[in-house]
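Intended use. Records like the one below are meant for learning the mapping from a protein sequence to its folded structure. Do not use them to infer anything beyond what is encoded.
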Amino acid sequence: MSPTRRTILLSVMLLTCVIFATDYFLDPNNEYIYATLEGFEAYYDETEQSLTVFNADLNLFLNISKLSEPVEGLDLTTLVQEIKKSLENSGFKILTTDERDFQKYKATTFETLSMQNNILVRVEFTIFEVPNRGFYMILSAAQDESYDSLRMVIRAAKMMLMFIE
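Structure written out for the chain above:
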């Protein structure tokens, strides 16, 4: 079996296992149900209305939060430009910018690098708009040296954090 075929087969098996290994979290406002990967601990912050999930074994952290209610005249492009400026001014080095649909929503993702407590951290910011609900952001962070090996888990965990209305 070729290495490419073996990698594809392994990826499909891992993704299938991930899909069936889920827990569900209902926010206290009964507004959304979140799906989270098994093995991640969940914490909901009522004041910020954000859900944080983390896996201490993998040293992986994700957070989904609401950035804004729907605002007349505010669009995703404008919001993304402001967030990009803010990130650059805060010392984040933007490695890539990716615009594509995230689940069923139009989204922009920034892959960044930052030094936190003398540790190099790779942080992804995915910003998207939910029609009639507002703008949301999923932040995922992992140590830079383990980021590439965790890329599939991060992607699956981000997809699971998309709320079920």
